[in-house]
Design goal:
The chain has helices spanning about 1-5, 10-20, 30-50, 85-105. The N and C termini lie far apart (about 55 Å). The chain has four helices and no strands. The protein has a domain at about 25-65 and about 75-105. With about 100 residues, the protein is mostly helical. The protein is about 55% helix and about 0% strand.
Length: about 100
């Protein structure tokens, strides 16, 4: 860390701090990255089966009892919390839709 701090200017350090504040990176935000990825995949699937339902990233965030989710998202409506039963249902739906798509080819 000392070598890194010695190799950049204080202004560059402040720019990195500002960037990290806007776009957090590292292990602490991997839950959000994977939730956004799962949401994107599932919404693409919902479009392909012509469903009106759209998922939100918060639906895929896992919440731990000792640590509440710190995700910041505009509140429009309360999304259901992700649990293993819901995740299993989503995976089964995804598999069934991909299986039907292969049959059409």
């Amino acid at each position: 860390m000392d070598k890194l701090l010695a190799s950049i200017t204080f202004d560059q350090y402040l720019e990195w701090k500002a960037y990290d504040h806007l776009f957090p990176f590292g292990d602490a935000r991997q839950d959000w990255n994977f939730a956004a990825l799962a949401c994107t995949v599932m919404n693409a699937l919902m479009i392909s089966v012509r469903s009106e339902h759209r998922f939100r990233p918060k639906e895929f965030l896992l919440e731990f009892k000792d640590e509440p989710s710190k995700a910041v998202e505009p509140k429009k409506e309360e999304a259901p919390k992700a649990n293993w039963q819901r995740m299993k249902f989503i995976a089964q739906m995804w598999f069934a839709a991909s299986k039907d798509k292969k049959k059409k080819r």
